[in-house]
Amino acid sequence: MGQQDGQALMELVAGSRSQCHKGKVADYIPMLAKASAETLGIDLHKIGEKNPLEAGDSTTVFTMQSISKVFTLILALMDWGEEVIFEKVGMEPTGDNFNSMVKLELVEPGRPFNPMINAGAIAITSLIKGASPQTKFKRILGFIRTVAGDEKLDYDREIFESEVATADRNRSLGYFLKHNHFLEGNVEAHLQVYFKHCSISVTCRHLARMAMIMANNGLDPDNGKEIIPKRYVQIAKVFMISCGMYNASGEFAIQVGIPAKSGVSGGIMAIVPGKMGISVIGPALSNKGNSVAGVHLLQRLSEKWQLNMF
Ligand code: DON
């Protein structure tokens, strides 16, 4: 990617910065509230390019939060296959908030609607193979390190502790799932693994590379090695389009038109199939939990470079 693209990206970031004040940094996990609402950065990794393009505050370190749900889903699919996984979670959007429990009680048999909402992601985490919670997390971290291409990735202890201390809603989801037989075993142990994978620290560089691997149907373009089976990339992309931006997924699909997953830290990972991976960070969130300036930036980028896949 040339100098011109870099200049265009810088201008796009400058133009979206004014949106930061329209959102609010998440504070329901107290340590997340330390992030700056003014931050906005982007990294764009084209398939086959050695040097990704960056602009704005792209070196900001943040936690994956719900973006990790894409990779726990893929790992669980690699562990068990589709049949087993879709007995425990559904394939449909909810239209509710990401931490909602309303449908678990209202809609029989209480199966989480999809693996991108908290209830579905907690059920998926419980299925990751491993003899202990430590082994399960080690496998998740190892997988994420491979996709991100960085063996040094780790989780942020402070964010993890902060979430553990304030996660009563996720605890209730876990026990509700167990009551309905969509999760087995020690709920607290499963939750610890879930909180840890949400707390894995990354930059936009990592997430753009992870999205680039998915844009390339799971193959590492450097050596042709399969990191993720194509079928599971396909499934993950469908969930990203239909539920990746929570109950703003329809709006995002219309305005931006590419599969994406957001997290409450303000990160978004987006895939342009066959072309590139993109990641933005902008901690100021909309009331639906998505980065306000990040979505604005992706929308303008999509329009300018005609990335909409529909
Ligand atoms: O379950 C939680 O509260 C977080 N660890 C993850 C939530 C999240 O990122 C939802 N996203 N928008």
From TrEMBL:
InterPro entries: Beta-lactam/transpept-like, Glutaminase
Enzyme class: hydrolase
Bilayer-spanning residue ranges: none
Top-level division of the source organism's lineage: Bacteria
UniProt-listed GO biological process terms: glutamate biosynthetic process; L-glutamine catabolic process
Molecular function per GO: glutaminase activity
Claim: Acetylation is one of the keywords in the record: yes
Keyword terms: Acetylation, Hydrolase
Residues annotated for substrate binding in this entry: 66, 118, 163, 170, 194, 246, 264
Swiss-Prot/TrEMBL catalytic activity: L-glutamine + H2O = L-glutamate + NH4(+)
EC number per UniProt: 3.5.1.2
Pfam families: Glutaminase
HAMAP family reported in the protein's UniProt record: Glutaminase (MF_00313)
Protein family membership: Belongs to the glutaminase family.
Assembly and interaction partners: Homotetramer.
Name under which the protein is recorded: Glutaminase
Organism field: Paenibacillus psychroresistens
